[in-house]
Design goal:
Radius of gyration: 23 Å
Structural class: alpha/beta
Number of strands: 14
Order of helices and strands: HHEHEEHEHHHEHEHEEEHEEEEE
Helix content: 25-40%
């Protein structure tokens, strides 16, 4: 009022007009639904061909977010990634995404022979056609960084590759393998994978493709008394019913990585039986599916997952 020499009523009118211009308009649930339908081509899922898992995830591995596979060595993480790579490269009229795949093979576990075996067993009509196996294999670009700096360079080049190669899937197997001691408690800004985590999540949003990251696991240490329930459950809280399916392992990247993941699948083997667990998902309760590994890849023994009882939420330490 002093600067402009105007009345209070004019100031209030000006503030109301400015607020009307700069504040976003309200949106109804109907409007949001219509907007999602109009941009459906930016969404979608990559079906895993595991009926029970696809039903739990509302169609499969979702586009535009990060899906994590956690589990000890030998439980089937890489085999699951190989099958997803095949499905992404599969022609659209066979139910695939008909696109390219970038596979960052940090631990040198990628095997084209096993992938061809999966394809011939799952899609014999395709892989027995002349040249089809070679064509699909040619769509999968494999990078094998041997150090954290090479891994960083690989990630920096991916944005261009996503556009040039019509990539429909990004696999990182596994992200934390090049950083010993990454699980140690650190301030968020000091985490050695902070930049990588931020870039991976932005790539998911930017590219609108499924991004799948595998991670090693480690046992709970004695000083980890406060963790999220999807990370650990103390042994004295285990019940004899459905909670026996709950995981007692911790993903190597730890707490800082947990927020970047939208879907978390845990693969474990107990008493000779393998289980795939949906431990984090916005569309599914925690479920456990027994599975086996066949020539065509992972196969669920039942499409009806066993619901896991979620333990009480732990109070987070402020350290």
């Amino acid at each position: 009022m002093k600067l402009l020499d105007v009345e209070l009523s004019e100031v209030r009118s000006a503030l109301a007009l400015v607020s009307e211009i700069v504040c976003p308009p309200f949106q109804t649930a109907l409007l949001l639904m219509e907007q999602r339908a109009a941009t459906e081509h930016l969404g979608g899922h990559l079906p895993t061909r595991l009926k029970g898992l696809d039903a739990a995830l509302c169609g499969g591995v979702p586009f535009g977010v990060v899906t994590e596979l956690v589990g000890p060595a030998g439980t089937g993480k890489t085999q699951f990634c190989l099958k997803l790579s095949l499905l992404a490269a599969l022609p659209a009229h066979y139910g695939g995404l008909d696109g390219g795949v970038i596979y960052i093979d940090v631990e040198s576990t990628f095997t084209s022979r096993r992938m061809i075996e999966m394809g011939a067993s799952s899609f014999p009509e395709i892989f027995h056609s002349k040249g089809m196996a070679q064509e699909m294999a040619g769509r999968i670009l494999v990078l094998q960084p041997t150090s954290l700096s090479e891994f960083t360079e690989s990630l920096e080049k991916i944005k261009v590759s996503l556009l040039q190669n019509q990539v429909k899937l990004l696999v990182i197997d596994s992200m934390a393998a090049l950083v010993p001691g990454v699980h140690e408690q650190r301030a968020p800004g000091q985490h050695p994978l902070s930049w990588h985590i931020s870039l991976i999540t932005s790539l998911a949003e930017f590219s609108r493709i499924p991004i799948v990251v595998t991670n090693r696991v480690r046992p709970q240490s004695h000083d980890e008394s406060c963790l999220y329930p999807f990370q650990v459950q103390k042994m004295d809280r285990i019940l004899k019913d459905r909670t026996r399916y709950y995981s007692h392992i911790v993903a190597v990247p730890g707490f800082h990585w947990a927020h970047a993941v939208t879907i978390r699948l845990v693969l474990e083997a107990k008493s000779g039986q393998r289980f795939m667990k949906v431990e984090k998902s916005p569309t599914s309760p925690p479920l456990a599916f027994p599975f086996t590994i066949t020539p065509s890849g992972l196969s669920l023994l039942t499409d009806d997952g066993t619901e896991m009882v979620v333990p009480e939420t732990c109070n987070l330490s402020s350290r």
